[in-house]
Amino acid sequence: MTDTDLLNQIIETEATLVFPHFDEMTALSIGQTLVADGLAKALPIVIDIRTPDATLFHAALPGSAPDNDEWARRKSNVTLRCHTSSYAVGLKCKIKGTAQAELGLPLADFAIHGGSVPVRLRGGRVVAAVTVSGLPQAEDHAMVIAALTAELARLA
Fold first, then answer.
1. Which residue spans traverse the membrane (predicted)?
2. What is the CATH number for 115?
3. Would you list the DSSP string of 33-95?
4. How many distinct structural domains can be found in the chain?
5. Pairing, β 126-133 against β 46-50
6. What is the span of the domain harbouring residue 141?
7. I need a surface site. Which of 76, 122, 135, 148 has the fewest CB within 10 A?
8. Distance (Å, rounded) from C-alpha 87 to C-alpha 45?
9. HSE, side-chain direction, 13 A CA sphere, residue 66
């Protein structure tokens, strides 16, 4: 699969992840799903769910490091600023041959690596970012997509 094919797949998947509502209890449910999955597979990950102004859920599983917290913060900043997944932003840059700095996203506060996915409400408004850090970027991203998909099925 080419990077363009992967980007298109990510964009299509994100378009299906539209929530009827999102609040602290929804964040808790998504976070608990990610924790259960991470513990079951003994994954050394950090899970972070935040809005632009509050952290709604945060967990560091055994084997994770403080650096994972920093990566989660930086990836979620990308998602909350660009209203798309951090993986999609990174792929767009790779395809266009542009550097992160050209987007006006300083490395100290932003990371265009996979693992953060927007929570989008009906009408298109992005209200939060769900982020996993500690695995290769495609795996971080896939974990979040699976948890969001499960939560939408639960809400249906």
1. none
2. 3.30.450.150
3. HHHHHHHHTT---EEEEE-SS-EEEEEE-TT--HHHHHHHHHHHHHHHHHSS-HHHHHHHHHH
4. 1
5. antiparallel
6. 3-155
7. 122
8. 17
9. 0
Query: Going by C-beta distance under 8 Å and a sequence separation of 6 or more, which residues neighbour residue 73?
Result: 48, 109
For position 5, what pLDDT does the model report? 97
pLDDT in 10s for each residue of the chain, 156 residues: 899 999 999 999 999 999 999 999 999 999 999 999 999 999 999 999 999 999 999 999 999 999 999 999 999 999 999 999 999 999 999 999 999 988 999 999 999 999 999 999 999 999 999 999 999 999 999 999 999 999 999 999
> Where is 122: in which H helix or E strand?
none
Give yes or no for a contact between 119 and 126, defined as CB atoms under 8 angstroms apart: yes
Q: 131 is written with which tokens?
A: 């982020």
- CA-to-CA dists, residue 118 to 42, 63, 91, 112, 132, angstroms: 25, 26, 16, 14, 12
Q: H or E stretch including 155?
A: helix 137-155
Please check whether residue 57 is in contact with residue 25, taking contact to mean a CB–CB distance below 8 angstroms. no
In the block, residue with structure tokens 């989008």: 120
